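Supplementary notes for students who missed Thursday's class. We covered one full example, reproduced here. Read the sequence, then the structure, then the short commentary at the end.
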Amino acid sequence: MAGNIALPLQEFIASLDNTSLPKILQVCSGVYFQGSIYEISGSEVCFSTGDLIKVIGIELQSVSCEDVTNNEKFELPVTHTGLFKVVPEKMPYTSVEEMLSLRPVGLDDSLPFTFTSHSKVTFGSLTLGTGKALTVLSIKKREGEEDMVRCHVKGQTEASAEVCIPLSSRGEFSECESEESYTLKEIMASPCLRSRRFRFVKTTKCERILVLSPVYQVQAIMNMRKNILRFPSSLEVDVVDVTDVCKDANFVTPLNLTEVLSQPDKSFPVVAEILEEPESRSFFKCAWLPGLVKSSNLILHKKGTTPMVLMSSLKGRKTQQYFLVSQQYSGRFRRRPREFNSVYEVYVASTQTHSLTVSVTRNCEEVEEEGLPGLSVGERLQIVDCTRMELPSESNKGEKQSVEALLCHRLQEPDDEEDDEEDEDEEKDKQEEAKEEVLLPLYMQGHFVEVLGENKKYKLCDLGKEFSLPLDVKVVSRDTDLETDPLVGFSCLRIEGALLEPSIQASFTDKPDHCFHLLPQWLSLSVSFTKDALPWPRDQFPKCFTEKVSEMTDTFFYEFHKKGNSDEAPPPRPPKRDLSSSNLVKKKSKSTKKSSKSKKNKDKSVPTEKLNDLTLNHKKRPPAPLPPEGTNDEPPPLMPRKCSAADITSKAKPNTYVKINQPLKRDHLCDVAADVESDHDYETVDETLVAVVKTAQENVMFY
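Structure (token representation):
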């Protein structure tokens, strides 16, 4: 394409492919679209006459369809599944060679095809009348001679014959409509097909003749613009190709961090300018993050791969914190026992730790119907294997349920009094014989803590080699290279996992020796390499200190686990139980509770039991037992109730049913006790009970 020929932007972009990029275009004339500034997909694009545009990428977005009859335009997506047929051209071809050269696709791919002649044509001894159809079968190439076209022709009596026509044969030829159909993707992939006209196949709009034009999303950079521009190729702008003239034009090339990793090693160290800041929703919570602002400079020292581990503090009163720690961290750690809140967590830990032993930290009541054993605080359980256990059936006829369970050995505490070696050996033998097997269903809730048998200090790199993750640790000696070690002070840190991250070692220009890691997978940042000089003498690189601990957000923690544990199975559910069986379990539990309470109440004194019978909770109190016959003991006299001043001055009528308390003689009490057949069913008074009541009244009055 000549450099001084101006073309519409859409026509020029349609003639390109990604292999011919980049191209430098100059705007010749611009028609402003929706104002003086193009606001497209959040990118501000402003074209003026004379601007230079460096096209670095094109991507097909849609297809523009124009009806040639009324100039109506509409767009179809590239994924449109409809088919199109080529509409034959109305203008006749002057020669067979011209007609073959303008086929919509390659000649070999478009065979056979049919054409007609508008006039009588004579080929050697064969003469064809007007409108006779010929089908091209193949092209015969002959060295040193003119190529021939092998055609098939049908006569009036259905007789057929083959004839060879020279390519230079002249006349008025028109192609016939082909039965071949194409998709939008096939049409857009062929420059020859894009130059033809089409119509829909098997639709109500099949008579409409359409001109199809591709609409691309253009990715470009402009002079003095530091971000990538994205705009459609359908903008009404005329451009000129000036690639050869403006080879030395200074265009800023924006790079994301992944593209920075692909740069050669000789490009580092380099001063880079930040073009686009990180997103507000960042995974990092570091001190250097606020410094990554637009138009500021960074020193990119080198690229590489950094082994790291993710640590988290335990949940508690304080907010949980997360740290990404480089394995170059030189502090020392000591293992901490892990805590588990279910048997399933113990099972998962046992798959990662050989001969795991745990201690019970909270009592568990035995529920025989659910297969839950009783556990006491302090009991030690050694995990053996994961197996299956059968739950007791709900009825004699019912089938037993089988669930997954953890097979454990209940360990006994050794006797401290025996110090001799022989006694210790005997004690070990006894413990081996006395190991009790316990089956814990995986769905069982419980509280356990890991039992550790050593108190050794480890480096961070050694922990990953000797133990599987996750692992609970505590920092016992800080990293002396750090001014403030953020890991010190936590009672327990959990190493969640290890990761090997491609990283870029960077620093700010005001502190070139204080470096940190930029992780392209977790940080979105756009930079451009500059030609600024490095802030140190040439070939005298400073001794750099690299940050080893970076605080992360909880979003990073969740995304990390989402990537690593996408196929992790959920913990098992407890088996379903019938309501009838659950009611039986409740009744049994209630009866056992009542029996246990009655056993505890047996230790109480007799007067307390009799005082309990006087409570108002009973609607009808059982009658007091009759005094035994032959006893001459007289009951103690009842003290008269003291009348208050309110009772004396009250004008209310006395109760005729209840007699006023008066001092009773002993013989009257005997008469009352003996009058069993009276009209009123009064209860007899037990002598012991009367004595207890009297004592209680005196105690209350004394208090």
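Commentary. Residues 340 and 346 are 6 Å apart (CA to CA). The first strand starts at residue 7 and ends at 8. If anything here is unclear, bring it to office hours.
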